[in-house]
Amino acid sequence: MTAIWIAVIGASMTAFLNKYIGHSVPEQWLDRPRFKRINTLVPIVLLSALVGVQTFAHKKELLIDHRLAGVGVALLALKFKAPFPVVVISAAVTSAAIYNWF
Amino acid sequence: MSINPRSNPVDRTALSVAFTVGLYGAAFGAAGVTAGFSILQTCLLSLLLFSGASQFAVVGIMGAGGAAISAIATATLLGFRNALYGLQMAPILKVNGIRRILSAQITIDESTAVATLQENDSDKRRGFYITGIGVYIFWNIFTYLGALGASAIGDPAVWGLDAAVPAAFCGLVWPRLKNKKQFIISASAIALALLLTPIAPAGVPIITTVLLAVIFGWKK
Predict the structure, then answer these.
(1) What are phi and psi of A58, to 5 degrees?
(2) Where, by residue number, does the polypeptide cross the bilayer (chain A) (predicted)?
(3) A57 forms bridges with which residues in the sheet?
(4) Model's pTM, two decimal places?
């Protein structure tokens, strides 16, 4: 089995466990202020790290290229409260324009 | 149960959320194929995993050459908030057996958000199920269309798909940044991940940032 298959099946199983546990354990198990504070921050750090790596990394190298322009436009779109599809498409169009014409 | 968006405001909110969110599925489908996943593997993630941020993380990390274990660990940590949503929803839904399994599968950001906006338990249940099932249907259809579209494309950079993926992550993290402290934490996570990129195996720089969540969240 390839690594991708392991990731697909493994992540799907743990995702379901996460969801099912919430419906099944007594409330006080997870209802702790410190746990909740950390848990609010977990998506922020992981998603931010993914933004950084997907924008600047190429394998183990860091570089500035067309992707940064795309992400910059995405951030601008978010700042102006654009809906998600507009954010993604404006980033793609900007990045593609620079990649194809420069 | 009949759904009537014209006369029922709960149905209206639920369906519009379901459709808009479902559209993002196309971005995920394209991201999956761009990262080297087959159409089948991409669609299975939407059918089985069914949690946007975790799905993007799996394809992002595997596409960058990360190990399966990094992808699974990152996706699991991202999905932990769904456990907290389940905790909120369980006393309202009061379901067991197969119904609990199916309700768990559609316990995500959007279904919980629409449910918690409602005033009484019956509207909360209605909002939860219409949003959850609606997102599930649209998300999976658009994942398939996005994957099909991207597989017809040669070099993803020509269509800007390599920038669409980090842009999608921006769109997922942006609404979570509500104060200055959270912006600083976000910036620190980017800095730490980039610092580790040249020296650590792919995927490790991302999961390591959980340490920042623990440090910053430990004290009020």
Answers:
(1) -130, 105
(2) 38-57, 82-101
(3) A62
(4) 0.85
Cβ-Cβ pairs closer than 8 A, A with B, add up to 318
| ipTM at complex level | 0.90
- Cβ-Cβ contacts under 8 Å, A16 against chain B: 48, 104-105
Cα B191 to Cα B135: distance, rounded to the nearest angstrom: 34
What are the domain boundaries of chain B? 9-175, 177-220
Contact assessment for residue B28 and residue B46, using Cβ atoms and an 8 Å cutoff:
yes
CB contact under 8 A, B68 and A69: no
What is the rounded (10 degree) CA torsion for B69, B71, B73, B76?
A: -140
d(CA B50, CA B58): 12
- What is the enclosing helix (H) or strand (E) of B112? helix B109-116
Q: What is the pLDDT of residues B33-78, one digit of tens each?
A: 999 999 999 999 999 999 999 999 999 999 999 999 999 999 999 9
* Residue B45 DSSP symbol: I
Judged by a CB distance cut-off of 8 A, whether residue B48 touches chain A is yes
CB burial class (10 A; 0-12, 13-18, 19+) of residue B6? exposed
C-alpha to C-alpha distance for A97 and B9, rounded to whole angstroms: 42
- The confidence band for B1, taking pLDDT boundaries of 50, 70 and 90, is low
CB contact under 8 A, B197 and A60: yes
Compute the average pLDDT of residues B81-103. Answer: 93
A95 vs B120: CA distance, rounded Å: 46
What are the tokens at A65? 């290229």
What is the model's pLDDT at position B211? 96
Count the residues in chain A. Answer: 102
pLDDT digits over A15-53, tens only?
999 999 999 988 777 778 898 899 889 989 999 999 999
